[in-house]
Specification:
This is Polymerase/histidinol phosphatase N-terminal domain-containing protein. The chain is mainly β. The protein has a 15-stranded mixed β-sheet that branches. The chain has a four-stranded antiparallel β-sheet with strand order 1-8-3-6, with no helix packed on it.
Amino acid sequence: MIITRLITNEEADRYVEVPFQVTSGTERIHVRIEVEANGPGDCVIDLGVKDSTRVRGWSGGARTEFFVEAEQATPGYIPGELVAGEWAVLLGTYRIPPAGCTVRVEVTCITMQGRWLKGDLHMHTVHSDGAWTVAENAKMMAELGCDFLAMTDHNTYSQNLTYPKETGIVLIPGMELTTNHGHANFLGAVRPVEDFRAVSSEQVQDRIQEARSNGARIVLNHPHCPNCGWEWAWSVDCDWVEIWNGPWREANQRTLTWWHEQLCSGKRMIAVGGSDFHRQGGYVKHSMPTTWVYAASRTAQGVLDGIDTGRVFLSFSPEGPTLELHAGIYHMGDVVPAQAPERQGKVVLVVNELEVGDTVKLISDRGVEVTCVAHHERSLELLAEMEGRTFYRAEVWRYFSEVQETLLAAVSNPLYMD
């Protein structure tokens, strides 16, 4: 929406409102102005915005554009709910030349819509044993083209109180419950527990229940790590399991094998990953692995709700490979009903961003059903029968010359059959 407003010299030293409509479901408002003097003389227009009830920000003459979202905003502007109704761009007529000026106001309202977002769910900062600040981690993730991150410092939530609102990264509150016999991430709650200390299985369960009651998702972290694997009860009340922690290694392979066994036994467990980044060194990098989520909105809640659906896959880097697994209208994380027409069709796996030599596997509860090696294709499509299977999932394996090994490059969550 572009609105052109002529401001006369008689309107100097006032606040001019340029109204615009915000519809329900708006995710982001972006405003930009261009000012042109209609003749000689000083011309200074200040900038701000109001919603239907209050002023939501002011930057004076310091800016010519700003954005407002539910969780983030340009400095000087207040993030929060984008209430439907009449809003107005505020133009402060600080200096107006005798012949007036023309202000071109461009308002862009972006509506919530499903899209793939990518990021990192496990990272540390100077608030525990990490070497980088919150802002430094967010900046690096933005440079990688990622959308979200959770900074999960050990047994503290102080990092959640310092999240920069002006960053372009969606910041998910997090904390890693760190005990001598296993770690778990609490994601989505700024202050998940009052006291992290737990030295028994019962106390661990109590901390988990407290975090859940405060709105956190529970992630079982690196459960087969030889140094800090999960030694508490496996019946722990968790939402998701971190099957890929940092660079691919034997501990991750053990968790992948265990997760597959759980799926074959009939359990439906959502798999996620995280870099567990503390500092630069070796092959540990931000967003290695990358968690991809199909989310309804580019917000912390949108990411968390998206993971809950199971439409999630992991890749070794933000560049992919990327995976899409579906049967008609049903996608990874969904359950295809026994009577659905799609049951007469095929499961379809589409893989993009492949390299020569990559091996793609389509796997069910019966084992590897389809295998294909990329020769020159950047994309592949694999098909498989549904009848008699309880789930399908996908893997991509790649040879990495840096370590002279074939390692996991991507893995999907399952598409289930009822």
